[in-house]
Structures are given as C-alpha cells and as structure tokens.
C-alpha cells in the first residue's frame, strides 16, 4: 500500500459527509485542517477521482504519493508515518 497526502479546499457550505466518510474508510491520519494522510492500493488519480465525486465545482483536491523523504513541524503524523507497517519504496 502507498501513503498519500490529500489536501483540499472546500468552498460550499453544504455538508461533505461522503467526502469525509471516504477519507475515513482508508487507514488515515488527519494531520491538519484540509490535509489528511491516507493509505491505499489505488494510485493518486484514482483516489482523486473517488474524492472528486463528493465535492463541488468551486472546491479543490490535491493528491500526492508520500515517499521516504518527508518532514513536518507542529504535526503529530510522524508516529503514524514511521509505523513498521508503512514502508516506503
């Protein structure tokens, strides 16, 4: 499985239950507002398309695969990313 950073900017006041339910269906870590790490067998484009089905035209979503060269400050994602079950290739 790969780890992806999913970043988004949701503009509309409607609820986004499907969007958040989909994110929560993957092994994940919600690291900051508008930014999650998710683990998936899908590629970035497929994951984006799944999420895009739950957002509106004025919204944005960006999905990128995480590798072993990452850094963070002020987040608590290091433990999740460094877990033995997450090996980056």
Q: Could you give a quick summary of the protein structure above?
A:
By secondary structure, this protein is an alpha+beta fold. 25% of the residues lie in helices and 28% in strands. It has helices at 17-25, 44-52, 78-81, and strands at residues 2-9, 28-32, 35-40, 60-65.
What are the defining features of this structure?
89 residues; alpha+beta; 3 helices; 4 strands; globular
Task: Please characterize this protein's 3D structure.
It is a single chain. This protein is α+β, with helices and mostly antiparallel strands and 89 residues long. The chain is 25% helix and 28% strand. The chain has helices spanning 17-25, 44-52, 78-81; strands at residues 2-9, 28-32, 35-40, 60-65.
SSE layout and pairing:
Blueprint: E1 2-9, H1 17-25, E2 28-32, E3 35-40, H2 44-52, E4 60-65, H3 78-81
| Topology, number of strands | 4
Q: Strand sequence of the main sheet, in spatial order?
A: 2-3-1-4
- Bin the strand percentage: 25-35%
Say what oligomer this is: single chain
The helix content is: 10-25%
Order of H and E elements: EHEEHEH
Largest sheet: 4 strands, antiparallel
How widely separated are the two ends? 10 Å
Q: What integer is the average pLDDT?
A: 90
């Amino acid at each position: 499985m790969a780890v992806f950073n999913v970043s988004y900017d949701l503009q509309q006041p409607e609820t986004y239950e499907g969007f958040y339910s989909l994110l929560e269906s993957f092994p994940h870590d919600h690291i900051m507002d508008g930014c999650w790490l998710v683990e998936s067998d899908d590629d970035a484009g497929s994951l984006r398309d799944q999420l895009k089905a739950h957002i509106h035209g004025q919204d944005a979503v960006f999905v990128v695969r995480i590798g072993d060269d990452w850094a963070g400050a002020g987040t608590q994602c290091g433990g999740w990313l460094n877990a033995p079950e997450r090996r980056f290739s």
